[in-house]
Design a protein that fits this description.
This protein has strands at residues 2-7, 10-13, 18-26, 28-39, 46-52, 57-59, 67-72, 77-82, 91-101, 106-110, 114-119. Helix content is 0%, strand content 62%.
Length: 120
């Protein structure tokens, strides 16, 4: 009974910026981590950035120095600030949350995906 609502995707020119946001709602007991993944056409979904509840973050090598993940714990929301966007960043971006909900087991939840397109 957890859902993730994403926003912020769109089309930008190379060098531009976007900020994605994702809010988790529902019967949430504990969120162990939240993060962003992306999927290129014909490829498997891959990690972009994640932020664990303990404060640890990690990034894909391809986005280090350009993307920043952050969380608003009180709002169960994760953000991805994407700067210096490149055409190679064009993908569907998915929010992910590792959640323990009341009356259920710990599991991953996924957002619906939001398209990020970067033109050259």
């Amino acid at each position: 009974q957890v859902q993730l609502v994403e926003s912020g995707g769109g089309l930008v020119q190379a060098g531009g910026s976007l900020r994605l946001s994702c809010a988790a709602s529902g019967s949430i007991s504990t969120i162990y981590s939240m993060g962003w993944y992306r999927q290129f056409p014909g490829k498997q979904r891959e990690l972009v950035a994640s932020d664990a509840s303990g404060g640890g973050t990690n990034y894909a090598d391809s986005v280090k120095g350009r993307f920043t993940i952050s969380r608003d714990i009180a709002k169960n929301t994760v953000y991805l600030q994407m700067n210096s966007l490149k055409p190679e960043d064009t993908a569907v971006y998915y929010c992910n949350a590792d959640v323990r909900s009341f009356g259920s087991v710990r599991r991953n939840y996924w957002g619906q995906g939001t398209q990020v397109s970067v033109s050259s």
